[in-house]
Amino acid sequence: MNKTQLRKIKKAILKKETLAFDQLTKKQKVELFEFSERYKKFLDQSKTEREAAKQIVHAAKNKGFVDIDSLAIKNTK
To answer: Over the Cα atoms of the chain, what is R_g?
Structure first.
């Protein structure tokens, strides 16, 4: 077999590697970078486990979640 034949065989049997990022639309890439920036901000503000927990609780409350302990106290009265 010569080099040309080997290249054809190699091309036929080997899977071409593609990046998932290259498959994204422009809108998806923008959303991805926005998410990444928010995550970097979270990491900057959450250097310790305690700070991370505080940030997570704050974000959950902003999204409408309620502390289950406060509900339990209301139901026992």
So the answer is: 25
